[in-house]
């Protein structure tokens, strides 16, 4: 099912004449409003400590509950990617981000309340004020430092995170050569 199929009525006027306009939008034939189904912006944080270990989390909630993850989440309205990743890291781990450097982005889908949310996940290399006193809060059941040699992408439950970890490890390996 295409996500637009879930929208039956025009969100502007309430008309039932809300019809497919093209592959990514619906248009109301009564008021002319066109709704484009675009991905939601999300962030992901790569955080390393002085031992060159990666901060990893364990998901507390579905989707992929219990699998490995990285700190991050949806960007709020009026928030930049850098502000969003800093807020999410603080909410999930208690750590304070002092620098967030954009690395790359990957498309993803995220099942939330039975609805498949399309996301654009933006990955950041983050430097934090202190690597001590990590907490597991919000959507995280556990947070811990893991040596890069023990980071296994197949243990990460979300597709974009898994692919992002693969890219990060390759990038890190190439820097050591």
The overall strand count is 10
CATH homologous superfamily descriptor of the largest domain: Nucleoside Triphosphate Pyrophosphohydrolase
Order of helices and strands: EEEEEEEHEEEH
Name the overall outline: elongated
Notes on the structure:
The protein is α+β, with helices and mostly antiparallel strands. It folds into 2 domains: 3-36, no CATH class; 40-176, Nucleoside Triphosphate Pyrophosphohydrolase (Alpha-Beta Complex). The chain has helices spanning 81-93, 159-176, and strands at 18-22, 25-28, 34-36, 40-47, 53-59, 68-69, 72-74, 97-112, 115-128, 140-147. The strands form 3 sheets. It has a 4-stranded mixed β-sheet, sandwiched between helices. Strands 1-2-3 form a 3-stranded antiparallel β-sheet, with no helix packed on it. The mean pLDDT is 94.
Brief overview, please?
The protein has 177 residues and is of the alpha+beta class. The protein has two helices and ten strands; from the N terminus they run E-E-E-E-E-E-E-H-E-E-E-H. The longest helix has 18 residues, at 159-176.
Record the SSE blueprint.
Elements: E1 18-22, E2 25-28, E3 34-36, E4 40-47, E5 53-59, E6 68-69, E7 72-74, H1 81-93, E8 97-112, E9 115-128, E10 140-147, H2 159-176
Parallel strand pairs: 4-9
Antiparallel strand pairs: 1-2, 2-3, 4-7, 5-6, 5-10, 8-9
Features:
177 residues; Nucleoside Triphosphate Pyrophosphohydrolase; 3-stranded antiparallel β-sheet
């Amino acid at each position: 099912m295409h996500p637009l199929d879930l929208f039956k009525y025009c969100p502007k006027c309430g008309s039932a004449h809300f019809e497919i306009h093209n592959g990514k939008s619906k248009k109301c034939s009564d008021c002319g409003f066109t709704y484009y189904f675009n991905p939601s912006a999300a962030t992901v944080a790569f955080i390393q400590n002085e031992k060159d270990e990666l901060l990893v989390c364990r998901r507390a909630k579905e989707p992929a509950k219990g699998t490995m993850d990285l700190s991050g989440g949806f960007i709020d309205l009026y928030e930049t990617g850098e502000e969003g990743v800093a807020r999410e890291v603080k909410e999930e781990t208690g750590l304070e981000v002092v620098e967030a450097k954009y690395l790359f982005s990957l498309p993803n889908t995220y099942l939330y309340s039975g609805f498949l949310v399309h996301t654009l996940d933006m990955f950041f290399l983050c430097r934090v004020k202190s690597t001590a006193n990590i907490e597991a809060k919000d959507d995280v059941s556990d947070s811990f430092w893991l040596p890069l040699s023990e980071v296994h992408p197949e243990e990460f439950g979300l597709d974009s995170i898994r692919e992002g970890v693969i890219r990060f490890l390759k990038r890190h390996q190439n820097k050591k050569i």
